[in-house]
Amino acid sequence: MKIRRETKIGLLAFASIALLIWGYQYLKGISMFSTNTILYAEYDNVNGIRLSTPVFIDGLQVGLVSDLFQNPENPRRIVVEMNIDRDRKIPKDAVAEITVTSLMGEMAINLTYENPCSGPDCAQSGDYLKGITKGTLASMVGLDDVKAYMETINQGMSDLFKELEKEIKNNEKIGQTFNDLSATMANLKSLTGRMDRLMATSSGDLKNTLANVKSLTDTLNAGSSSMKSMIENADRFAAKMNDLPLDETLGEAKNTFAKLQNTLANADKMVAELNDLLTKAKSDDGAVAMLLSDPDFAARLKLTVQDMQLLLQDLRLHPKRYLGPLAKRKKYVKPEEDPGH
């Protein structure tokens, strides 16, 4: 019997559609020729779960997510359909946990249960499992591991603080260091009070100083790369300190306290010198005090600076006047625009 052309075209179209459907299901990991178990689970949020998301039991893949849809009775709940291999027996009390499988945020569903099942205790196609969502930290690290890490850290920190407390109680130099530090802070407080009073009386003259400070700040900002290098060196130093034994660390702490005492002594000396400098600046005989408090002295100094500017201007405009015998005698001509008038 001869098959009509239209029949051939229809059969070819049907075969093409069937092949397309089979290929689509194959790409999703679902076989159309096997009777797998279809299980469901409901969640409040399925962020990261997509079609073909793997389903695991203790790290072994046993299926894929085949569909996601809203619960018709409660649209705020999302139902996940899981296509499980037919030879896998899943207990009815199993829990479907949404977990994070990598730091890149890849998601999966992990089936957990206490005991295996047999017969009617196993879930059948169409059954619903309990669905829960685990956070990133809980997915990557178990609760028992976190507790063990925290106990180790707490024990180490407790031992460290006990040793430090013992060293501080048994070392009189450390107490003396803190006393010196308190005295230095008192001196600094007195110094800042005197500086406040001085700046209150000469606030107008501090504008130039503040401008210089701003310039210094800009320079420091320009050198931020150097600061970054210093911070990196400090980080490397901290890493090395973490690798040191506790006894060596305590010994270095003693040396550091001794150096701190020397630093505080130098700071006291610097404060005394700065106090002496401020005393001289406030005395009547000092040039700084005269500049800040004597209007006549400031006016004379300003007039002197103006005369020097006029002299330099005239020297620039008429250099031949100041060549002495080497200059040719020439009648003086008054400039049309005299900067001195």
What does this structure look like?
With 341 residues, the protein is an alpha/beta fold. It folds into five domains: 1-33; 34-140, no CATH class; 142-170; 172-282, no CATH class; 292-320. It contains nine helices and seven strands; from the N terminus they run H-E-E-E-E-E-E-E-H-H-H-H-H-H-H-H. Strands 1-4-3-2-6-5-7 form a seven-stranded mixed barrel. Strand 5 and strand 6 (107-112) form a beta hairpin. Helix 4 packs parallel to helix 7 (246-282). The protein is elongated. The N and C termini lie far apart (126 Å).
Record keyword descriptors for this entry.
341 residues; alpha/beta; 5 domains; 9 helices; 55% helix
Rg on CA atoms, Å: 44 Å
Q: Number of helical segments? A: 9
Listing every helix as H and every strand as E from the N terminus to the C terminus, the arrangement reads HEEEEEEEHHHHHHHH
The neighbouring-strand order within the major sheet is: 1-4-3-2-6-5-7
Mean of all residue-level pLDDT scores: 77
Q: What is the domain tally? A: 5
- Shape assignment: elongated
